[in-house]
Amino acid sequence: MVSSRVAVLTSATALLILMVAAVPAAAIFNGHPDGNDHPNVGAVLAAEAFSDGTWTECTGVLISPTVLLSAAHCGFENGESVAVTFDEEYDSSTGTTYWGTWHRDPRFLPYVNQIRPMANPYDLAVLVFADPIPGITPAQLPEAGSLANLPRGTQFTSVGYGAQFVTHKKGGQLFHYTDTRYQASGGLRTQSRALLKISMNPAHGEGGACTGDSGGPEFLGAGSSETSIVAATTSTGDFACQSTNVAYRLDTASARSFLGQYVSLP
Fold this sequence. Notes:
The chain is 3% helix and 33% strand. The chain is mostly beta strands. The longest helix has 7 residues, at 253-259.
């Protein structure tokens, strides 16, 4: 994802969502308002409001009282001061925000001018707060190698503040945002040593991530079987946000080598 978000996406400006050849992702499609189901999931806010009046740049999840996990491609620079809110529905005039310092995996290469951004698996960043976030229980990280060889169809719950639906129009698509936390679930299609590819086919009652949900959590399980374990973070997806959500596994040696600098690992 680039440092600024656009509402209308054309073939010339497809920088926010992955096309089939791989592009960054972002919002929850075919989902429902999260309410207080996942209070540890927050919206990473842009420095200025977008043209539609919303503020969500990316999504993140609290993994310790002082560390929020998100995606490196969200466009912030190392050492930059960044705001996040955990409000279910953010209102800039009354909402609560917390400021932290952005750190992305130094192995990450920006998507700009890359032909195949999916070749870069280091799409992780953290926002570090000087003081603990009060009243919120952090999510858990998976144990090393615990997500290898998951059965096809394993359920995941996607949570984020991204677009909830899209209007198709000549020359592109219009994505609609409300700065509201949403959730949806889908089943595992395939996986690699670094990524989970999760189905979000609405014909099967599934939903998942789109623009604005980048960096958001993929909780292991769904419904009554959902756990507090963040299996992966949303990284990419398909152009229409209606087929596949691609997320970066957090049980890998690569992910753990970065996260271990900021939190204690299971």
